[in-house]
Amino acid sequence: METRPRVLLADDDPELLELYRELLSRLPSAPEIRVANSGLKALALLQEEPFHLFLCDLRMPRMDGLQVLTVVRRKYPQLRTVALTALKDESLRSRVYALGVDLYWQKPANDREVQLFLDSLESLLSRDASGGFRGIQSKSLVDILQLECLSQNSTVLRITHGPWVGRIWILGGELIDAETDELVGEEAFARILSWKSGTFEQLPPEPDRPRRIFKSCNALLLETAQAIDESGSENEPAVESEIPVPPPPLEQIARMERVSSVLRFGQRAQDPWESRGVECPEEVRRWARHALERFRRLEEKLAAGPLEHVQGTGWQQQIGLAPLTDGGLLIEWHGRLEPERAAEQLRKAVTLLES
Questions:
Q1: 41-52, pLDDT tens digit by residue?
Q2: 0.70 cut: is pTM over it?
Q3: 34 with 44: CB under 8 angstroms?
Q4: Helices (H) and strands (E) in the chain, counts
Q5: What is the H or E stretch that residue 141 is in?
Q6: CA distance 178 to 182
Q7: The domain over range 249-354 is classified in CATH as 3.30.450.30
Q8: Domain locations in the chain as residue ranges
Q9: Looking at the domain that runs over 6-130, which CATH code has it been given?
Q10: DSSP notation for 286-337
């Protein structure tokens, strides 16, 4: 069963978040788009659910884009990453690519740049399934090796996959050695070829490198591919049903218009809780429980009927707090949402959780 790719966009500017959300909705792959208005919130979302592509603005308060991307490249090496910036800075570009980021992009300024930007993102999303390496458009590592061998080149390929680094030596179009971690020769080559994404660079050839691989390039590629396929089929889980299963209620709430985080909590401090995209959820939960309790006391003093929800706005964010039978619900939106629309979303969210 095919699933839509999931994209996470991080930027501290609410207007740009909405602009990019609208642009990304034009992609042919029709991705599910989530947004985060800070680096910490983006990391929280990445920890809670899988994504195929992560776009991150480089200039954000508290935790800038370079710091976020450093963490993301280390923790999620398979995740495709894009750095966004309004600055033209070649040294910054070099630093970003050194992290292993797939694409460094100055924010598009006209229709042509927008289309190029969208084409690049669609290419990254399509490569998620088949594998690819930054530096060669839509090429897998097998493609790169075959190209080098057919061209009878002499080079050293340095491949980076998250925290792992491997090298493959090619001399006159023949594979002569490979190395990664403590593995060498054919074992190292097989390990490197199992990596589906990453970055690579070409280093000067080393003619004096001792030869530890004696099979031809095509034979070794075929053997390694068969071994990887057999290993993948053994571990592949059985498909139980083709009927789509709706996401859990909290996930449905997190996908509502402009929602950036959601927290459900119990009445007592020791009660279980769950969240999506919340920075410092323990602190937020304590505040939400305390705030809801104070509003309930105010409700009793005013004798104004049962509390339905509370809304508040800041310069950049908007929050809503609603009571549940067994606790409460906190929703945060990025930017501004009409009060009636926010109230409607709160009511729908409560219904989802109480049903």
A1: 999 999 888 999
A2: no
A3: no
A4: 11, 16
A5: helix 141-150
A6: 11
A7: yes
A8: 6-130, 141-230, 249-354
A9: 3.40.50.2300
A10: HHHHHHHHHHHHHHHHHT------EEEE-SSEEEEEEEETTEEEEEEEES--
